[in-house]
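Go through this one:
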Amino acid sequence: MSETLQTTTQWGKLTTTLSGYVGIDTLQEQMRKKALKRGFEFHTMVVGGSGLGKSTLVNTLFKAQISRRSCTNESEGTIPKTVQIKSVSHVIEEKGVRLKLTVTDTPGFGDQINNENCWLPILEFINDQYEKYLSEEVNVSRKKHIPDTRVHVCLYFISPTGHSCRPLDLEFMKRLDKVVNIVPIIAKADTLTLEERYAFKKRVREDLEFHGIQFYPMKSLDEDEEETAINQALREKMPFAIVGSDREYQVNGKSVLGRKTKWGLIEVENKNHCEFALLRDMLIRTHMQDLKDVTDSIHYENFRRDRLEMHSEFAGPTPPYHEMGESNL
């Protein structure tokens, strides 16, 4: 009897054959229709120094003019005196799937003479989004669907120096890897030769490992062998060496995104030229929902637990339900 109970409590170990059609296979379609009706939300943050192509990359990823600079016609002429946080939201649709996409830029990061604590405004912004979500969640009469402004991924742009990570890069990622999914990117990778790119990627990975910095996808969160194999292949490719461009050129009668140089055309989506396609596939086609799940179940949950523990310390212990008087119910 104990063996039977043990078997039934392990998901998928005990299979019961149905004698006829029940219809549980329609659950997937039910969920799909409900999700499509509600739409999806995704929040991307881009962090890095000026001139690394953050706006261009975002436009290239979603094949639309969605970056903050594209929408506001701001120039890069003036560097802010402090790190600023600026967000812009769009609703984009493809084959009946609606996505509310929010892109948050951080102009001024790393551009000052003294960059001490320049990550603090970014950390505060991320935590503010968690605080907003928590406030809605604990409301007595909360909304049926809570708007999700939480940052699901932070694309961190590393300057293609060819040497190693700057102290600022390491300090930023070390401070924020516990509160947001960080994806490190080597910007403007076409400024490096293939040999320099390979060596630089290796040194960056070594720096991250030496300083105990976790980047997405985290090894500790792999759930099964299939997921481990997929994520390990991604981890070995990181940081992605990318080239961004929203200009189209004709190659063999086909329009491709690329950058024209005097040595030839760099095709953005050609995996032999750069790793943009790997980044795009991970962010949008294979891991977008997982990025949201990890944000909710790991980063937000850690914030929520800390805030509620802090609140309970000030409020004191809550009496058991049966001891509460009518006036308290």
In short: Strands lie at 40-47, 86-94, 97-105, 153-158, 182-186, 240-241, 248-251, 254-261, 264-267.
